[in-house]
Amino acid sequence: MENVKEVDAKSFAGEVLQSDLPVLVDFWAPWCGPCRMVRPVVEALAGKMAGRFRFASLNTDDNIELAMKYEITAIPTLIVFAQGIEKDRIIGALPGSELEKRIEPFAAPAAG
């Protein structure tokens, strides 16, 4: 998960809300089967969209307060944040191509 940053209650604001790039946060838990299916999809997109998007992962079991704050009622839940504001929310597993289509409108322009 070199392109997906693990965040927690202490690092969330700095890594997600104050990011200069849009951030996709994967809210997950270790016991969640569909979360394990989403992880490689998120990792692949993180590599493909590096420089245009940041990717983060938040364990809801270890960060209950944040899960409650963002009203995470089912996992996996993927939330797109841009300039500290929630822009889109995806609940459940999507194929990589569908997830990419869903988040592409929020991506920063490609460099160069």
Radius of gyration: 13 Å
The biggest beta sheet reads: 5 strands, mixed
**Structural class per helix/strand content?**
alpha/beta
CATH architecture: 3-Layer(aba) Sandwich
Number of helices: 4
- Which stretches of 5+ consecutive residues score pLDDT under 50? none
Corresponding CATH superfamily: Glutaredoxin
Q: In total, how many beta strands?
A: 5
What is the top-level CATH class?
Alpha Beta
Report the mean per-residue pLDDT as an integer: 94
Strand content: 25-35%
Q: What kind of assembly state do the chains in view correspond to? A: single chain
Shape: globular
How would you characterize this protein structure?
32% of the residues lie in helices and 26% in strands. By secondary structure, the protein is of the alpha/beta class. A five-stranded mixed β-sheet has the order 1-3-2-4-5. Strand 2 (23-28), helix 2 (33-48) and strand 3 form a beta-alpha-beta unit. The chain is globular, with a radius of gyration of 13 Å. The protein starts with a strand and ends in a 9-residue tail after the last helix.
Short description:
This protein has four helices and five strands.
Sequence-ordered SSE layout with sheet pairings:
Blueprint: E1 4-7, H1 12-17, E2 23-28, H2 33-48, E3 54-59, H3 64-69, E4 77-82, E5 85-91, H4 96-103
